[in-house]
Amino acid sequence: MSWRVQPVFSHPLLSRLSAMLAARTGLHFPQERWGDLEKGIAAAAPMFGMPDAPSCARWLLGAPLTRNQIEVLAAHLTVGETYFFRDERCFEILEQHVLPERLQARANATRPLRIWSAGCCTGEEPYSIAMLLDRLLPHGADCGATILATDINPAFLRKAAQGVYGEWSFRATPAWLRERYFDPAKNSRFEIKRSVRQRVRFSCLNLADDSYPSLTNNTNAMDVIICRNVLMYFTVAQAKKVVENLRRSLVDGGWLIVSAAETSSSLFSRFAAVEFAGAVLYRKLAHTPLPAAPPPQPLAADAASAVVWRAAPPGPDRAEPQAGEAVVCEESAGATPLRTARVCANQGKLAEAAQWCEKAIAADRLDPASQYLLATIRLELGQSDAAAQSLLHVLYLDPDFVLAHFALGSVCLSQSRHREAWRHFDNALTLLHAHPYDEPLPASEGLTAGRLAEIIGSLRASLPPTTTEAQRT
Ligand SMILES: C[S@@+](CC[C@H](N)C(=O)[O-])C[C@H]1O[C@@H](n2cnc3c(N)ncnc32)[C@H](O)[C@@H]1O
Questions:
Q1: How many domains does the chain have?
Q2: Which atom of ligand 1 is nearest to the CA of 208?
Q3: Which atom in ligand 1 lies closest to the alpha carbon of residue 86?
């Protein structure tokens, strides 16, 4: 009697698969992890309608994969391990140094504190930060802090948005925290309170894509980015690219937090490494050198954790402007007003950015790009009516400016004008059909046509069911 041996992937097939995955998702599958790769592909095969893992692997290599398919694949190949307050020391440093420092830096600013949990998994990490913020702020005070939480895996994000967790997610959480921020739910589970949940906005984002920093997906001008236990699964080349993009997403002086296992002087060489007892955090170097800052004052409870500021690495980073960002909100040779406006906006200097946009518009009244940037800045400043005016102006100048249709739809959605929102989204989708799936859209800083179509699809799905076809027309 002969047993049918499970089909095994060939060496060249695995090698090509891991190269494709590295390029499209950043995920690293060296030979010693090929077993995991085979298991992941086998689990994903039914989702793609494939009879078995080897046929699925061959199809994956032959097909021009859509963003959606890449996400399905990544969902089966990524590790979803996380829990509330994972790495207690990291959260102590956030609570005692990083967040107070950023809140102080923001004290006179017009815009809220912005935090991004990149690779947030099922939401325990961003919700832990939201709980910290609640404890840091005087009762009832609204500092307008926002938390963006992104992941490549839509299934994780759906669970995160539900905010219902079992015991295992609380393995490092003191009981009092659970009592304060959760309500008991069915089946011995716990549901996060609305006040914490509403600080966090979840969104699907593949860190291996060049879609950030961007005003379009809200990934610009971050004060703090926490990206822990994510880079370790990437190839070195992809990790370098991701770290550089994350750096560009930070404001000057902003903080990047990775896990202890991911610290590296070469990977983070463009940051200042800030040593705390038991942890190293990274800080974005300012264009002009950071003031010789005294260490953040440890709070009484943290007297033991002396903070050591390591000198920023010598070399061009410290003294010279950084590549691609030579303009720092002031006119300099070769910088156009529009480009200066973009740099200011990415730095979170929105009022200055708007002024530079006005200059760009004055210089060329027929350029829709300047009007569009002004619209996105106005949106971020909460001036939705003025933003809508600018967007209409963009469409007057260029009726095919797809991002303007999309942004107008979003404005209408936020004002519960659902019928108009549908109309603008429909217009955007019609225009998007003329673009190849992976084509980056003009003025989008890397957002592709296919991805925007997916975003619009999920926004339309979020409209109330009463928004029927009849109401739309
Ligand atoms: C081990 S979890 C870490 C969760 C959390 N940051 C923590 O430390 O507890 C890794 C997460 O990274 C996400 N991830 C992996 N590759 C990604 C990519 N290319 N873009 C975005 N997220 C990714 C996975 O889906 C997973 O949720």
A1: 3
A2: 19
A3: 9
Judge whether 206 lies within some domain. yes
403 Cβ inside 6 Å of ligand 1: no
pLDDT average, residue stretch 235-251? 92
Instruction: Tell whether the model's pLDDT for residue 258 goes beyond 90.
Output: yes
Instruction: Count Cβ neighbours within 10 Å for each residue of 384-408 and write b for 16 or more, e otherwise.
Output: bebbbebbebbbebbeebbbbbbbb
Question: 299 in a domain, yes or no?
Answer: yes
Smallest CA separation from ligand 1 atom 14, residue: 119
Site to probe by mutation for ligand 1, drawn from 76, 230, 257, 258 as the one with most ligand atoms within 8 Å of Cβ, is 230
Is 226's pLDDT higher than 50? yes
Q: Model pTM greater than 0.85?
A: no
Closest atom of ligand 1 to 75 CA is: 25
Query: Last residue of some domain: 33, 55, 77?
Result: 77
> What residue spans of 254-326 are helical by DSSP H?
316-319
281 alpha carbon – ligand 1 mean position (Å): 19
Mean pLDDT (the chain, rounded): 81
Are 153 and 175 part of one and the same domain? Answer: yes
Residues 229 and 283 in one domain: yes
Instruction: Work out which ligand 1 atom sits closest to the CA atom of 83.
Output: 9
Angle between helices 67-77 and 154-162 (to 10 degrees): 80
Q: Which residue owns the Cα nearest ligand 1 atom 11?
A: 119
Q: Which of 58-72, 188-202, 298-312 has the highest average model confidence (pLDDT)?
A: 188-202
State which residues form the domain around 187: 88-316
25-29, 40-44, 157-161, 385-389: lowest mean pLDDT where? 25-29
Which protein residue has the closest C-alpha to ligand 1 atom 10?
A: 230
Same domain, 353 and 309: no
Say whether both 240 and 309 belong to one domain.
yes
In a domain, 286, yes or no: yes
Name the residue with the closest Cα to ligand 1, atom 7: 82
> Which residue among 249, 284, 316 closes a domain?
316
pLDDT above 90 coverage of the chain, percent = 38
DSSP element (H, E) containing 309: strand 308-309
Cβ of 192 closer than 6 Å to ligand 1, yes or no, is no
CATH of the domain at 445: 1.25.40.10
**128 and 62 fall within a common domain:** no
- Does a structural domain hold residue 416? yes
Nearest CA to ligand 1 atom 9: 82
Whole-number Å distance between alpha carbons of 244 and 231: 12
Nearest-CA neighbor of 106 among 135, 133, 139?
133
Pairing of strands 146-151, 114-118: parallel
Regarding whether 94 and 73 lie in a shared domain, the answer is no
- Contact 209 CB / ligand 1 (< 6 Å): no
pLDDT score recorded for residue 208: 86
With residue 133 as reference, give the H or E element that holds it: helix 124-136
